[in-house]
Predict the structure.
Amino acid sequence: MSNRELAKQLIDQIPESKLFYIVSYLQGAAVPDEIPNAETIAAMEELENGGGTLFRGSTEDLMAELMEG
């Protein structure tokens, strides 16, 4: 029996009152994973190689710094 067949059998056993939670989960699981664009991949590689900038401060300070640039 495949996983898909097993899942269908199990769904038939779930009480109607709990199906809302299962449907919500399945809708999220059915969305394909997002693939990062080239700029995001380059930024992650930079961080993995010890680059990038570490910010220590409040969100307000970060926003102020971002608005300066």
